[in-house]
Amino acid sequence: MLEATRILAFSDEAIEEAARLIGEGFPVAVATETVYGLAADATNAEAVARIYEAKGRPSFNPLIVHVPDLAAAERIGKFSDEARELAEQYWPGPLTLVVPLRNDAGIASLVTAGLSTIALRVPTHRAMQALLRRTGRPLAAPSANASGRISPTRAEHVLKSLDGRIPLIVDAGPTERGLESTIVAATDGQIRLLRRGPIEVPGAIEAETGEIEAPGQLASHYAPSKPLRLDAAEPTQDEFTIGFGKVGGDVNLSAKSDLVEAAERLFELLHVADASIKPRIAVAPIPNEGLGAAINDRLRRAAAPRG
Fold first, then answer.
1. Does 201 lie in the same domain as 265?
2. Taking each helix axis from N to C terminus, what angle separates 12-23 and 126-135, rounded to the nearest 10 degrees?
3. Cα–Cα distance between 128 and 139 in angstroms, integer?
């Protein structure tokens, strides 16, 4: 548990301090034009895990990655002509584009929840833009509130639900929009609406309910191709085992039973297990408390029967 969360009014000094904390792997709250975001280095899996820990997020849904401009976005995602046209028309602004992830993007797999796509946005707010340029990093930033609570449009809203869970809030006053960004997927030559928001995108097709692609959707997402058994204290010979703590295996989420480390490594090790020669996967028991509840939720979704 951190000490009481500090609030600093938006200034060069506040951005400097926020950038220092992000460099040390902590999430900080900062205003965007939509709602306050909980920003952390999207290339640092442990930092991203701390976002989930602070929010008490019930499952590892994909996170929106904020970047300063289209050029930075194109270093992370693959933009079709349609996606580029949307970016040029609406960025910076409250539109999030889901595009294929580049193999060399360097984004932590926890950000995309193991998917091959990534949600990208160029914000217009001066505070988030200042932080992006000062850190020189892409920043994963869901809304800065405890999971299930109302999205925050003022610094005091953030403090009410996250006091003691994060080190700093950069207070830039009330947000302009007060509603999370519109999300569209620009893949396979189509523009599909995944979440309604401040921007109406002409011609966007309402996405059918199915696998999760972006924040705000409820269906299950990344799952390995092999059968997955949970709470496996004793593996069988045909299982690739992912251990935790004293329950060993072929690999271990965290030998020291650290749930932040386990969350950081979860998707990476599921990929390793899926690529192994063994036909089945087993995962050791994970404590169902704090961040462990989110890990177990994700594992249950991954293990669910598929049609």
1. no
2. 50
3. 9
Mean pLDDT, rounded, for 91-101: 96
pLDDT reported for residue 128: 98
Whether the CB-CB separation of 243 and 261 falls below 8 Å is answered with no
Which string of DSSP letters, residue by residue, matches 153-202?
Answer: SSHHHHHHHHBTTBSEEEE--S-SS-SPPEEEEEETTEEEEEE--S---T
Q: d(Cα 44, Cα 138) in Å, to the nearest integer?
A: 10
User: Can you tell me the distance from the alpha carbon of 157 to that of 140, in angstroms, rounded to the nearest whole number?
Assistant: 20
Range of the domain at 113: 6-206
Mean pLDDT across the chain, nearest whole number?
Answer: 89
Residues 6+ apart with CB under 8 A from 20: none
Residues 135, 20: Cα–Cα separation, whole Å: 8
How far is it, in rounded angstroms, from Cα 231 to Cα 43?
30
- Whether residue 307 has pLDDT greater than 70: no
User: 112 pLDDT exceeds 70?
Assistant: yes
Please tell me the total count of domains within the chain.
Answer: 2
Q: SS3 of 246, please? A: coil
Residue 220 domain flag? no
